Recover the amino acids of this structure.
């Protein structure tokens, strides 16, 4: 019974590239308070100019429901640390998170208000 909860939601996405798997590994398995600097340095070494890598990083940082709840503050710390080197990325993460909140509130209003917005 317990094993059914051990399956990662990412397994249903399909085949990930080695870089994408590495990013997932860093955010899901390695990231914790004592490894924050190490993860930041490893993320900085990625090919940020590659559109696919950048898009996957952005998705990984904004699909916060894929990350353990206890790691959310560390993801925020990564965004803060990375803004020194990739300010556009940090702005994009914050922008997307705020957009997701806004969209969620609109959907909530439609559900509560019976569709009359």
């Amino acid at each position: 019974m317990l094993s059914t909860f051990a399956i990662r939601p990412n397994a249903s996405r399909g085949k990930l590239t080695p870089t994408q798997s590495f990013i997932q590994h860093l955010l899901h398995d390695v990231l914790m308070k004592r490894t924050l600097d190490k993860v930041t340095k490893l993320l900085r070494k990625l090919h940020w100019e590659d559109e696919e890598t950048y898009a996957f990083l952005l998705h990984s940082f904004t699909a916060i429901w894929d990350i353990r709840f206890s790691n959310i503050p560390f993801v925020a710390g990564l965004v803060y640390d990375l803004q020194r080197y990739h300010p556009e990325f940090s702005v994009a993460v914050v922008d997307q998170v705020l957009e997701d909140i806004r969209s969620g509130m609109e959907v909530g209003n439609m559900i509560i208000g019976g569709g009359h917005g």
Residues 1-12 have pLDDT under 50 and may be disordered. Residues 87-112 form the longest helix (26 residues).
